[in-house]
Amino acid sequence: MAHLYEHCYDCERWIGRDWEEVHLWLDEFFTEFGPAHRCQRHHIEGIEEIRQKLGDEAALAAKIHILVDCWGIPSKADYENCFVNQLGQEEDSTWEEAWKMIQEIRNERDVGRKNGPQTLSG
User: Could you tell me if 71 and 98 are in contact, meaning their C-beta atoms sit under 8 angstroms apart?
Assistant: First the structure.
């Protein structure tokens, strides 16, 4: 489990802003539930809630946070149906797979920065 400063550092380095408010929101229930807090917001629905509240880049920060913690992106149903453990990880989840997903995010961001904003007309 990464600490707040590690999540902030990752986002600062990978997307240019620490997004502390996103990490605090995702981990809000840690003091009450310990590692089992992840079922509250560490899932695709949590990412979408962040997107609605704070926008696409904040959702990207949430996605990175969850990948670092859970080694994948579970759904609420994955927790409820025990497809993931209390840490949000599948039995065969690996850090290497999560790292590949993070690298894809970083590569997409780099392409977007080089090409500028995309429009329907080209």
Answer: yes
Residues in the chain: 122
The pTM assigned to this predicted structure is 0.84
Q: Is residue 115 part of a domain?
A: no
Side chain identity at 58, as an amino acid letter? A
Q: Domain residues for 105? A: 4-109
Q: At 105, list the tokens.
A: 């995010």
For the record, the structure tokens of 28 come out as 């809000």
The identity of residue 86, as a single letter, is: Q
CB of 66 closer than 8 Å to CB of 88? yes
In one letter, which amino acid is 121? Answer: S
Tell me if 119 is assigned to some domain.
no
Selected residue with higher pLDDT from 84 and 119: 84
